[in-house]
């Protein structure tokens, strides 16, 4: 077996890590955790440290680690048929079965599922389909996509543009010109402190209306949003936000894409986040929780309204010129089937609701009154603690102080993994949906003690 030193050297010499400070990593200044194995909510690294993973990888290992049922399903599929493509009407039992299982769990009026590999490529598919749709309808000018500041939709060319976070744009010549951004429904960071939630919703709507008026509704194809902002800070929308936004979209014939890469398959305590917030999307993006990351697989669930137009398009133009070699990969599909069965048989959607509410309530009780906690917020099995310099003035820390990364670092030393979200001092939690109350207690206790050791 390779020694840890050997692996560390090869890693720094050969491996280009995503979302990593490249120079610091090469110099050996950044942490380098080499993960060896995992079970339940715990991961174990090569140095023998066991850590409670309160972020489920990248909020994706929803059923927890080490599920033998999924491992067996993957192995069986690999032995029987590791691969066949899905072009020109080909399929496998696994991909066809999973498509039915996904549709059975989707909101009403959804028609078909296209399978990809990850959330980014699924959103690329969505935007292409929206453009195709408007071309078939004879509206070639109706192409721009509205996204929110702090939305996260991937890091490709189009999806990195949709993402409303500066680090995903800087030095990459993004966003592309077809993408326009609007206000995030982020009540803590509202423009005026005396705004009520209802006033803030009206403000978000007014901003959207103004953007549409400026650009022209006949140039705007779709609005994309996560039911609850994820990577942008784990921020539930204020009450009434989605109903008010949807009314505007409806008025201007703008499609709604619900990016459910994080919220799909139970994380909010409902099967889909759209159900939770009464959203009626035209397309839904799914990934992460579809296979609990046991194999890469994503999907675009297409609503009936769009599907009939897409079909009409192929009658006019021939087969749709869109597809990946690995679309509907049978191993991913086998993992997806076993994963969705486990979510049902273990009651994980319900557990996400009940233990998630417990985690949020305990976190609020433990750190909510701390002078540097601006807000404890969450929904289902998502929770965030936002740190502020002064809670009365809602003054934020300077990024150079690295307050959240320092707290998260202390937590890791104490055996709990949380995530310092990329913009602002926000500690994020998105544990596997199988978290128990006793495990939630550990997460809360380690958060409170790390907060105390860094900020007093
Ligand atoms: N959409 C959302 C809401 C996400 O959170 C993510 C990933 N964090 C993506 C899309 C992109 O998915 P991937 O990293 O699998 O490309």
UniProtKB/TrEMBL annotation:
Keyword Transferase attached: yes
Q: Does the keyword Flavoprotein apply?
A: no
Q: Which GO terms describe its cellular component?
A: cytosol
Q: Which domain of life is it from?
A: Bacteria
- One Pfam family per UniProt: Aminotran_3
User: Which SUPFAM superfamilies does this one have?
Assistant: PLP-dependent transferases
Per its record, what are the GO molecular function terms? Answer: pyridoxal phosphate binding; transaminase activity
- Family of this protein: Belongs to the class-III pyridoxal-phosphate-dependent aminotransferase family.
Which protein is depicted?
L-2,4-diaminobutyrate transaminase
Q: Which organism is it from?
A: Pelagibacterium luteolum
């Amino acid at each position: 077996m390779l020694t840890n030193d050997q692996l560390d050297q090869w890693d720094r010499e050969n491996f280009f890590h995503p979302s990593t400070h490249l120079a610091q990593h090469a110099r050996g200044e950044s942490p380098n955790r080499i993960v060896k194995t995992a079970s339940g909510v715990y991961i174990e690294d090569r140095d023998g440290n066991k850590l409670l993973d309160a972020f489920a990888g990248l909020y994706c290992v929803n059923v927890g680690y080490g599920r033998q049922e999924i491992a067996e399903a993957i192995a069986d599929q690999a032995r029987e048929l590791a691969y066949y493509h899905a072009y020109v009407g080909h399929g496998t039992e696994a991909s066809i079965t999973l498509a039915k299982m996904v549709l059975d769990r989707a909101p009403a009026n959804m028609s078909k599922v296209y399978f990809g590999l990850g959330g980014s490529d699924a959103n690329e598919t969505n935007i292409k389909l929206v453009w195709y749709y408007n071309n078939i309808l004879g509206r070639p000018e109706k192409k721009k996509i509205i996204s929110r500041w702090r939305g996260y939709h991937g890091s490709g060319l189009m999806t990195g543009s949709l993402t409303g976070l500066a680090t995903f744009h800087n030095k990459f010549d993004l966003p592309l010109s077809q993408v326009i951004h609007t206000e995030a429904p982020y009540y803590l960071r509202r423009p005026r402190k005396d705004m009520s939630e209802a006033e803030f919703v009206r403000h978000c709507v007014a901003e959207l209306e103004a953007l549409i008026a400026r650009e022209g509704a006949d140039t705007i194809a779709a609005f994309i949003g996560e039911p609850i902002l994820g990577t942008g800070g784990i921020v539930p929308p204020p009450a009434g936000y989605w109903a008010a936004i949807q009314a505007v979209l409806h008025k201007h014939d703008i499609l709604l894409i619900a990016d459910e890469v994080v919220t799909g398959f139970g994380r909010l305590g409902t099967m889909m986040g759209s159900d939770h917030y009464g959203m009626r999307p035209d397309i839904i993006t799914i990934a992460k929780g579809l296979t609990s990351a046991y194999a890469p697989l994503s999907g675009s669930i297409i609503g009936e309204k769009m599907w009939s137009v897409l079909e009409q398009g192929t009658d006019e133009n021939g087969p749709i010129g869109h597809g990946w070699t690995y679309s509907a990969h049978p191993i991913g599909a086998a993992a997806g089937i076993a994963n969705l069965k486990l979510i049902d048989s273990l009651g994980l959607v319900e557990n996400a609701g009940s233990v998630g509410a417990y985690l949020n309530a305990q976190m609020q009780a433990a750190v909510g009154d701390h002078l540097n906690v601006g807000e404890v917020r969450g929904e289902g099995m998502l929770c965030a603690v936002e740190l502020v310099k002064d809670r009365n003035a809602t003054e934020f820390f300077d990024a150079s102080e690295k307050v959240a990364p320092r707290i998260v670092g202390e937590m890791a030393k104490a055996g709990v993994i949380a995530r310092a979200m990329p913009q602002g001092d926000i500690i994020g939690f998105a544990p596997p949906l199988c978290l128990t109350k006793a495990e939630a207690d550990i997460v809360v206790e380690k958060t409170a003690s790390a907060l105390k050791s860094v900020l007093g």
